[in-house]
Amino acid sequence: MLELVLKFMQKNDVEVPFCYEERRLGDIAAFGVNPEKVSRELNWTAQLTIEDLVINSWEAHKLNKESTLQHSA
Known about the structure:
single chain, 73 residues, mainly alpha, 4 helices, 56% helix, extended
């Protein structure tokens, strides 16, 4: 998760406040993805990168900021 947050901040030139906490009951220690296994078993290959994901998600958030704020109230 930290890697994703850091990548998000780097690619979008924004600060995201976060803090380190102890793991909660039920939290997994680590996770990973094997792209070859996903491709083989699901016959699916990603077309975009993690960099694309963090950039596109921030752009979508900025475009829909007002809508997001209204729904969270």
